[in-house]
Amino acid sequence: MKTKITDLFEIEYPIVQGGMIWVASHPLVAAVSEAGGLGLLGSGSMYPEQLREEIRKTRELTRKPFGVNIPLLRADAEKLMEVALEEKVRIVFTSAGNPGRFTSFLKSHGVTVAHVVPSVKFAKKAEAAGVDTVVAEGTEAGGHNGFEEITTLCLVPQVADTVSVPVIAAGGIGDARGVAAAMALGADGVQMGTRFALTRESAAHPNYKGKGIEAGEGDTLLFARKIGPIRAYKNAFALRIWQAEFAGKSPEEIRGLVGERRAKLGIHEGDTEEGDLEMGQIAGLVKELKPVGEVMEEIISGLGRVTARLNRVMNEIKN
Ligand SMILES: Cc1cc2nc3c(=O)[nH]c(=O)nc-3n(C[C@H](O)[C@H](O)[C@H](O)COP(=O)(O)O)c2cc1C
After folding, report:
1. How far is the CA of 42 from the centre of ligand 1 (A)?
2. pLDDT tens readout for residues 238-257
3. How many domains does the chain divide into?
4. N or C: which end of the chain has fewer CB within 10 A?
């Protein structure tokens, strides 16, 4: 398979595993890269020295390309970047911040840079900052989301029409149908988070995975919309924040209610009621905890069937 994204990252399939806090450590990242996709370490939940160790452990498991996601809201984002550079990481995905801050610095060290954007406006900013590709992430996605709340279906074609760098679609993609749809919208690759968080190799707590497997399409909630929207499993914690917003509480009050370390409590420690169980709407599609190799194989083999179906439907339309 060959697209601008497989060429850019020198990978077999245009499938990126989102760099997820408390989920994307070396077993998951190496498994995705070994299966021909691009694994990304989720450095957002790591101390710099932990990241160094994770990079080294990933290299012990695969010789294929992998990268690091660095959320720019981290106060020590620069330190994480230094570690990535010292360890000769060649691919960095930045998110949750201004791409103008580090892109040219990373590029001057020979790094291929992607930035995650929730809107056309930020896609333009990222392109102007010099990124090699943008990840256009819709509001269906698990984790931290844009304030704009634009769905992947609406966002990807508008971003693809605006920027000249290749586009990676993210948010709500979980199988071959989603991958083909993203390509139809103008993407050259996809980034999947929730689907990979719900695999055997994911570092998430078994309780998190259990809730993800159980979840239906309506079991996630977008909350903390005034201070930085998060999509997560609809548990007591998420509902409490959502109701407080609905009741008109101020951003400060909401911030106080969210508190600290909720994602660690939920995803890492497995508190399914009081933790932040970040996951996307596509969790409803995931019914079984499979190994990454099987998930990738199903997507790749499924693409043939999806294309055949599309051809059939298109022919019916024409006739
Ligand atoms: C548990 C979880 C943690 C995440 N953490 C991060 C993160 O640290 N940095 C980031 O850029 N995106 C993060 N994301 C977003 C993913 O990288 C990806 O873009 C998103 O999950 C795609 O949407 P999907 O969940 O519908 O597949 C996270 C997503 C999940 C589900």
Report:
1. 9
2. 999 999 999 999 999 999 99
3. 2
4. C
